UniProtKB/TrEMBL annotation:
<dbReference type="GO" id="GO:0019450">
    <property type="term" value="P:L-cysteine catabolic process to pyruvate"/>
</dbReference>
<dbReference type="InterPro" id="IPR000277">
    <property type="entry name" value="Cys/Met-Metab_PyrdxlP-dep_enz"/>
</dbReference>
<dbReference type="InterPro" id="IPR015421">
    <property type="entry name" value="PyrdxlP-dep_Trfase_major"/>
</dbReference>
<dbReference type="GO" id="GO:0030170">
    <property type="term" value="F:pyridoxal phosphate binding"/>
</dbReference>
<comment type="similarity">
    <text>Belongs to the trans-sulfuration enzymes family.</text>
</comment>
<dbReference type="InterPro" id="IPR015424">
    <property type="entry name" value="PyrdxlP-dep_Trfase"/>
</dbReference>
<feature type="modified residue" description="N6-(pyridoxal phosphate)lysine">
    <location>
        <position position="217"/>
    </location>
</feature>
<feature type="region of interest" description="Disordered">
    <location>
        <begin position="1"/>
        <end position="31"/>
    </location>
</feature>
<feature type="compositionally biased region" description="Basic and acidic residues">
    <location>
        <begin position="1"/>
        <end position="10"/>
    </location>
</feature>
<dbReference type="InterPro" id="IPR006233">
    <property type="entry name" value="Cys_b_lyase_bac"/>
</dbReference>
<keyword id="KW-0663">Pyridoxal phosphate</keyword>
<dbReference type="InterPro" id="IPR015422">
    <property type="entry name" value="PyrdxlP-dep_Trfase_small"/>
</dbReference>
<dbReference type="GO" id="GO:0019346">
    <property type="term" value="P:transsulfuration"/>
</dbReference>
<dbReference type="Pfam" id="PF01053">
    <property type="entry name" value="Cys_Met_Meta_PP"/>
</dbReference>
<dbReference type="GO" id="GO:0047804">
    <property type="term" value="F:cysteine-S-conjugate beta-lyase activity"/>
</dbReference>
<keyword id="KW-0456">Lyase</keyword>
<protein>
    <submittedName>
        <fullName>Cystathionine beta-lyase</fullName>
    </submittedName>
</protein>
Length: 410
């Protein structure tokens, strides 16, 4: 199957990574639909001349298991094809490993990293822990205010780590503007683009240098495998790849095959969960119990203008903030749901709900935001899956009844 870049996304998702040499034998190229699982640590050479003359350290050459084999190559190839401007994609065993691998490629002791204040907590922990231990300082800034990022830049600033929208508070930043600001100061810009994927937001095309995803979420899509990726143009791709080799990073071919399976249905799953999330967000916005619906796809919600301007798609992940109430009442709401599992992930076929308590994780901006009624602080994050949205709405209706019973208004 050959990918034709003039085809539309769904057509390309069906074809990507299915090179005839990866899905068949020399006699029968392309004989099976999917690249088989190549389990291989040792790669064999036909003779000494081949071993001595093995090709340079480039993609697509057999060498040794740590550099992967066609199953991993097919996935990386497919992800690169989906990201306009990418020269290649490095695969990591998790999304967190991708963030660490990319930061360790870009930063050196003595550097300062700027990090968006809405970043995923393990990214923040990396700044406080791993990076601090290596003599790299992290400073946080308000993602919704470009002046806040500009003010944080100093002569030692080397890079900026963005996440958009933030995966807990779903705050939207003006990424093209922040990326241009970074470039203007000679900083490397990295974006955790897990929420939108390149289907909703082609990050490199919007000025980002390195785009990172937790493939565990949307690409896997079935809550049964973990992986991460980082894609970049030629210069940063080569550096990412060499640093990943230094770190001994390799992903299992079984997991790569699961990711390729998920990738085939990425567009239809995202379309369905986006539509359902929007319907649920709309319903929540009519309820008197809800103070804020943090869903950029929803007209009138925070960040909707940026979403409309920059994004070609959404996903099922958003949050809402209850009007007043108590922590135990919020817990009763989540416990009162039967179609939403309670767990720290998203992007799977199944819906999930988790509490949103970002206050202790902020350092540059207050939470709740100063403009809000400070009693409105108990949030819930929903990862809307593929269930029928009418059933999910009925479930949330029961959850809100449990919230009232638990004395929310007390
Ligand atoms: C889950 C997540 C990650 C980390 O991915 P893992 O594959 O779980 O390590 C990174 N960024 C965001 C925004 C996430 O939601």
């Amino acid at each position: 199957m050959n990918d034709d870049t003039t085809d539309r996304t769904g057509t390309r998702l069906a074809a990507l990574g299915r090179r005839p040499e990866w899905t068949g034998t020399p006699e029968h190229p392309g004989a099976v639909v999917n690249p088989p699982v190549w389990r291989a640590s040792t790669h064999l050479y036909p003779d000494m001349a081949a071993l001595r003359g093995h090709p340079a350290n480039e993609d697509g050459n057999f060498y040794y298991g740590r550099r992967g084999a066609p199953t991993q190559w097919a996935l990386a190839d497919a992800l690169t094809a989906l990201e306009p401007g990418a020269a290649g994609t490095v695969l990591y065993p998790s999304g967190v490993a991708a963030i660490a691998g990319a930061l360790l490629t870009v930063l050196r002791p003595g550097d300062v990293l700027l990090m968006t204040d809405n970043a995923y907590e393990p990214s923040r922990a990396m700044g406080r822990g791993l990076l601090a231990d290596f003599g790299i300082e992290t400073r946080w800034f308000d993602p919704t205010d470009p002046d806040s990022m500009a003010a944080a830049i100093c002569p030692r600033t080397r890079a900026v780590l963005l996440e958009n929208p933030g995966s807990l508070t779903i705050e939207m930043a003006d990424i093209p503007r922040l990326a241009a600001l970074a470039r203007g100061h000679g900083l490397v810009s990295l974006l955790d683009n897990t929420w939108a994927s390149p289907l909703g937001f082609p990050a490199l095309a919007h000025g980002i240098d390195i785009t990172i995803m937790s493939l565990t979420k949307h690409v896997g899509g079935h809550s049964d495998a973990m992986m991460g990726s980082a894609a970049a143009g030629p210069e940063w791709y080569r550096k990412l790849r060499l640093r990943a080799q230094n770190l001994g990073i390799v992903v299992s071919p079984d997991d790569a095959a699961l990711m390729l399976r998920g990738l085939r249905t990425l567009e239809v799953r995202l379309e369905r969960s986006t539509k359902s999330a929007l319907a649920i967000a709309q319903w929540l916005s009519t309820r008197t119990e809800i103070a804020h619906v943090l869903c950029p796809m929803l007209p009138g919600a925070p960040g909707h203008d940026l979403w409309q301007r920059d994004f070609t798609g959404g996903c099922g992940l958003f949050s809402f903030i209850l009007k007043g109430g108590t922590g135990p009442a919020r817990d009763a709401l989540i416990d009162g749901l039967s179609h939403f599992g309670i767990g720290y992930s998203w992007g799977g076929f199944e819906s999930l709900a988790t509490p949103v308590d970002p206050a202790p994780m902020r350092s540059a901006t207050p939470w709740p935001p100063a403009a809000w009624d400070q009693a409105d602080r108990f949030g819930v994050r929903l990862a809307v899956g593929l269930e029928d949205p009418a059933d999910l709405i009925a479930d949330l209706d029961r959850g809100l009844a449990a919230w009232h019973r638990a004395g929310a208004a007390a």
